[in-house]
Amino acid sequence: MAPIAVGDVVPEGTISFFDENDQLQSVSVHTLAAGKKVILFGVPGAFTPTCSMQHVPGFIEKAEELKSKGVDEIICFSVNDPFVMKAWGKTYPENKHVKFVADGSGEYTQLLGLELDLKDKGLGVRSRRFALLLDNLKVTVANVESGGEFTVSSADDILKAL
Description:
Layout: E1 14-18, E2 24-28, H1 29-33, E3 37-43, H2 49-61, H3 63-68, E4 73-78, H4 82-89, E5 98-102, H5 107-112, E6 115-117, E7 125-127, E8 130-135, E9 138-144, H6 155-161
Family: Belongs to the peroxiredoxin family. Prx5 subfamily.
Keywords: Antioxidant, Oxidoreductase, Peroxidase, Redox-active center
Enzyme class: oxidoreductase
């Protein structure tokens, strides 16, 4: 499947997360993003070095600025279970705006066409690193990395596009 691109509507699918009341929620991406401007940024793995020390902190640090430019939701997405994503999110006590969501079996990642095969590293099939800007479900920015790179999907890259 071709990777999601500018002009595409994000596919319908389900992701999971723990809400503010610590209740596990499984919701449709369309329900979460319809009628909103949403940043969906994907990382290959929770607790991994580039993801934990650069990618996620950038979105947390720039969240207020992103929101001031009309962004309604900032969602961190990874092929992990929701318990891992909850634990990872708690390692950022300063976070007020980034929602950590799980694609436990990688099904939504496959619908996006953004799988990254890391079996040779013992990690299975994960998500490529990416940042999408969605406006009412339509992709207006699609910054997708090659391999394990981190060159086009930062919070600053999204800010430049807003």
